[in-house]
Amino acid sequence: MLAPFEYHRPESLAEAAALLRALGPEAAVYAGGTELLPLMKDGLIEASALIDIKAIPGLGGIARGRDSALRIGPLTTHRAIERSPLVREHLPELAALEANVANVRVRAAGTIGGNLCFAEPHSDPATLLVALDARFTLVSVEGVREIAAEDFFTGLLETARRPDELLADIQIPAPAPGSGVAYERFKTHERPSASVAAVIRLDDGAVADCRVVVGSVGVRPLRMGRAESLLNGARPSDDAIAEAAEAIRAEVAPTEDAFESTDYKRQLAATLGRRAIAAALARAGGESDHDR
Prior knowledge:
Radius of gyration: 19 Å
Shape: globular
C-alpha cells in the first residue's frame, strides 16, 4: 500500500525544476516508476510528493548530436533503446545490453534516466556508459550543468545530482576510429552479479587508449586504473590480457552480501574482465564476433 502523497504533472523543465526547489528533498521524480514505486510500496522510500515528468516535451527520443554523439532523452525506455536503428547501427553494444535488462515488462516501462538516477549498483547501463565516457546534463532553477558519468555515481543509491536537479540529457560520444567496445556480465537473477565494460583504441597495433569499468560487485561502477595502465602501450596478447585481468582482481572493491562472497566477486570480475578486454581488442582490430 502506498502512503498518501501529492501528485504533480509539470509540462516544462522550468516548471518541474521550480517544483523540486519548492517541495524539497522529500519530493521524488516519477518517470517509468519501475524502481521507485515498488520501494515506496514496501515503505523503503518515503516521498511526500511525486513529480511526474512524462508530460514534459523533449525528454524522450534518440538522435545524433554534435561530433556524431548519441543523444538519448532520459524518458527513453530500455525497450526503445534496444530497438532503435540508430543505436543498433552506431553503438550495437548498448542495444544488446538493453535487450537483456531485467525483463520485457521492465524494459517497456523503465526509462534510462530513472535507471541512472536511482543508482542501483547492479545497473547494466551505468557500467557501459562510464566506460564510454558519457556525459549527463542536469537542470535546476539555477541553470544547467554537465557532469561525466564517471563522476555522477557516488555511492550506494547515491549520485551527484542535487535534490533540486533533473536529468535532462544523456550524451554518449562516438568511439574513436580504431576502437572496440565490449560489455560482459554474469547473472543468476534479473540483475547482474558482476559486469565489466571495456573500450579500447588501437593505434599501429598497440593500445593507445582504454577504459575498463567494473560494475555490480560494489556500490558503484569503478574504472580499473591498474588494468588500464598495464594495457596502455601494450600490444594485444594473451599475456597482456591475463595480466590486466589479474589487476582487476586486485583492484576491484566488492561488497559482502548474502548471495556472493567478496572472493567470488573478485573472481567474477577478473573472468569477465578477461572476456571484455579480449573482445574489445578483437573489435578494435577489425575482427567480427563471428571471427572470434
